[in-house]
Structure formats: C-alpha cells, structure tokens
Amino acid sequence: MSTNNETSLSYRCPLCEHHEAVLFSTYPTFQLVKCAQCAFIYQPVLEHQIEQYISEIYDAQWVQMREQYTEQTFHEHAAFNHLLIQMFYPYAAEKGRLLEIGSGTGEFLHLMNSIGWDVIGIEPSVAACEYASQTFNLPLRCDMFDPVKLAASEPIATDVQVICFWHVLEHQADPISFLQGAASLLHQDGIMLFSVPNLRSLTNQIHGLQSPLLSERDHLSHFTMEHIQMLLRKANLQSVSLFTRQEINRHVRDVSSIGQLKDKSSLSLQQLVKWQAELQSNGEGHEIVCVCKKGS
After folding, report:
1. Within 10 Å of residue 285's Cβ, how many Cβ atoms?
2. Which of 28, 35, 165, 219 has its CA 20 to 30 A from that of 175?
3. What pLDDT is recorded for position 261?
4. Helix residue spans in 115-220 (DSSP H)
5. Has domain 70-294 been given CATH number 3.40.50.150?
C-alpha cells in the first residue's frame, strides 16, 4: 500500500499531533491521510459526521446482516474475549462490574451477564440496542460514549473492574481522548481490553487500497502495533499484553480471495494453519488485541 499523492496537507495527527500529512487514498465519500511524522493513517472528520455515520450504517439492515453470524460471534469472539479476561484479570473468579463500550448486538455482554458479571453496555445504534433488548433482554444505554455523562447517570459505571471495547477504537476521531475517558472509569486494579483491525493484516496485503478495512467510511483510524504502543503511552496506560490474531474463518476468507487460491482445496489443513500461525507470529493477524491497565 502506498500513498497516492505526496502533496503536503495541513491536518493535526490524532496520535502524535504533528500538523503535516500526505494524502494516502481517496474514496467516493472521504479521504485517508498519513501523518508525515508517525505514519498514522486517519480520516480527517468532524464530530457530527461520526453520529451521522452511525445512523446511516448501523441500521436495521446491518442488524439483520449481523444476525446471520450470531453463532460465529459467540464462538470466535465472545468466548475468546471471555478467555482473555480469565487470563489477564487476577480476580476474574470473583466477577465484578464490566463495562462494554460499543456493545453492538450484545452477544459478548450477554455471555458475561449469564456467567455472573454485573454488566453495563453502551451502544449508539438504536437498531442494535433494540435487538439486544429483544433477543438477550439486555438494557443497553443507547448513546455515544461520554465518560462524564455515563458516570453521572450510571453510578455503577465508575470504579469498573473490566472495561472492553471490541473493534470500536477505529471509529474514534480522537483515540487518545477516548482511551483516557474510558480509563477514568476503571478501578485502580482493573484492566481494559480492546481490539482493532490491523493495518498490516493479510486482508490489507491482499486487497491494498481497496481493502474493506480501509474503504469503510466509518473506519477513521488505522493502527499498527507500534501505533497502539504509542497510543497507550499518550493515554498513560501500561500494556499487559499486545498481539495480533487471525481467526480461522477470517483466514479462510482471506486465502480464498487470492486469485490462484480460489479453490481452498489447493492448501492442506496443515498449510493453512501454518500460514495462520506465521501471520500471528509476525504481527500480521487480522486484528490487534490489547490488554492494558492504568499507568503508575
């Protein structure tokens, strides 16, 4: 993937605050630019546009699409994310309060609620909140995330033991402020877990500038592992674990989209899994997963 135009543009990088960027790519309704200093790729966007994106994209049709993948969401994501909490939160056996920001259609929060956690979920999509309420009896707070507003209206949303946001940070115009706001609600001994699409993923390597990870207009920020490390430092958070993950169904779809490998039978199971492991080892898995805690 390469920059389309090296003309200097005046935009403030949301990550390093440098005021110079170059055009990375142009799409029908938006542009991506790359910071001239830290190489962070982002979409210059106004706050009101984010709410507009949510109402236009995450509607009843999107919920209907998501419903097709409910089983996969439980197996590949909700169960895996629960395992992360079991591994990295020392007091997981005692349960406690768990806040999920961007709960979507509610599968993960439903799982955590069913095993005894005191859950709070916030989700800006009206259609998703209605689905979670009807399907899982989850009373999600339908709103944009505002830590001050949330703490004032939901007293249990303070000193939270575990805070999660899965594939949410890439939708934020100001990821540092978002992380700082989330951390303000975290218990001193709590942990925060999140995932984002990986700029260096196989998906992006295959599709280049036309990758769905880059061409989706509500993806405002595009992270590498180095950018996540920089982000944590800026937000005064300490990394507990940072890795990339290439879930198997995504891997099969990626491999199948390569011209000469349209027929998956051309790869043995051993070859497929070996490639999956290599991607994860090289930091090229589809998503970056981060576990962090408050800095000292």
Report:
1. 25
2. 28
3. 54
4. 126-136, 147-153, 175-183, 202-207, 212-215
5. yes
Distance CA 44, CA 83 (A): 36
Percent of the chain with pLDDT over 70: 95
Predicted pLDDT of residue 164: 98
Residue 32, beta-bridge partner list: 25
Averaged pLDDT, 242-247: 96
Per the CB < 8 A criterion, the answer to whether 35 and 16 are in contact is yes
DSSP 3-state of 217: coil
Q: Which of 163, 174, 121 is nearest to 143 (CA)?
A: 121
What pTM value is reported for the model? 0.93
Burial 58-84 (b: 16+ CB within 10 A, else e): beeebbeebeeeeeebeebbbebbbeb
pLDDT (0 to 100) of residue 256: 82
Encode pLDDT of 51-90 as tens digits.
Answer: 778 878 888 888 888 888 788 888 889 999 999 999 999 9
Residue located via tokens 């955590």: 112
pLDDT mean over 248-268: 75
How far apart are alpha carbons 167 and 188 in whole angstroms? 24
3 state SS for 230-249 = HHHHHCCEEEEEEEEECCHH
Write out the two tokens for 140.
């999600």
Could you write out the DSSP letters of every residue in 92-126?
A: GGG--EEEEES-TTSHHHHHHHHTT-EEEEE---H
Which amino acid makes up residue 259?
G
For residue 51, give the H/E element and its range: helix 47-57
- Would you give the distance in Å from CA 86 to the centre of its chain? 20
Structure tokens at 250: 């995504």
Q: 135-170 pLDDT, tens per residue?
A: 999 999 999 999 999 999 888 888 999 999 999 999
